[in-house]
Specification:
257 residues, alpha+beta, eight-stranded mixed beta sheet
Length: 257
């Protein structure tokens, strides 16, 4: 009889232990904040999405390559902006940011804007569900020859039968702030697809290459030291040519709100 009582007591203790562990596991799972699965793509577009061998109607150019160097991507919520605007400086770090309301991804990202790829891959993965007021990018000269952006395209001068190759490059060190009208609403338990596009037709709008200097290898180079006035005109279009938003229907275009 004593042996039976002892076995019964051990069984009760084992069951209680299992029950308590189950409760702890359930409690821990309830404390886990559901995340918002998120992807981010940075790409180039033209008004007709023409690349490779097709001349765009807006500029008459054939875009061949487009690369951009990015070193930091930061997501900022409406709450952080409100803290900064309302003067809650005790809640900010030494850089004037609210750490609990921003998420930063740092690295050296070489973005192939036409191939729509990145090296290394931009791994956003999961963010806290929230309405993010803006996305900030730092573009830096991390491409070859200390360049930030490189775009190559073919230009056909008036009356010519053969196209001339053009290489545009810059060495910008810029922080680009991208905002959406109602913010970027990243929902939990949902694949949120963010899209940043650079419209090359807008970037090279009203560019005049008629009097551009051509190098000995028959290439027109546009940068700070070669055809600098043309480079300046393009630089003035840079911010306005960048657009951002969500692409939840995965059609490669920013969703209309």
């Amino acid at each position: 009889m004593k042996k039976s009582i002892r076995i019964f007591a051990q069984s009760v203790m084992l069951a209680a232990t299992i029950f308590l562990q189950a409760c702890d596991d359930d409690s821990e799972s309830k404390n886990v904040t559901p995340m918002a699965s998120t992807t981010l793509k940075i790409k180039a577009v033209t008004n007709e999405s023409s690349f490779g061998n097709e001349r765009t109607e807006a500029t008459g150019l054939i875009f061949k390559e487009a690369f951009l160097g990015v070193t930091e991507i930061e997501f900022e919520t409406l709450e952080e902006e409100n803290i900064e605007d309302e003067g809650g400086f005790e809640d900010l770090d030494q850089d004037g940011e609210a750490d609990d309301e921003e998420i930063e991804f740092e690295g050296t990202f070489v973005i192939d804007l036409i191939d729509e790829s990145s090296e290394p891959e931009i791994d956003i993965a999961e963010l806290s569900p929230a309405i993010y007021d803006e996305i900030e990018f730092e573009v830096m000269p991390v491409l070859s020859d200390d360049k930030t952006m490189i775009v190559t395209f073919e230009y056909l001068p008036d009356g010519a039968t053969e196209a001339t190759m053009v290489e545009y490059s810059n060495n910008f060190e810029l922080e680009i702030e991208l905002e959406a009208g109602k913010g970027f609403n990243l929902k939990q338990d949902y694949l949120n697809k963010l899209l940043v596009i650079i419209n090359l037709d807008e970037l090279f709008a009203d560019m005049n290459l008629e009097n551009a200097e051509v190098d000995d290898d028959d290439i027109i180079r546009i940068n700070n030291s070669s055809n600098a006035s043309i480079a300046l005109a393009i630089a003035n279009n840079f911010q306005g040519a960048i657009h951002s938003g969500k692409d939840d229907n995965n059609d490669g275009q920013i969703d209309v709100e």
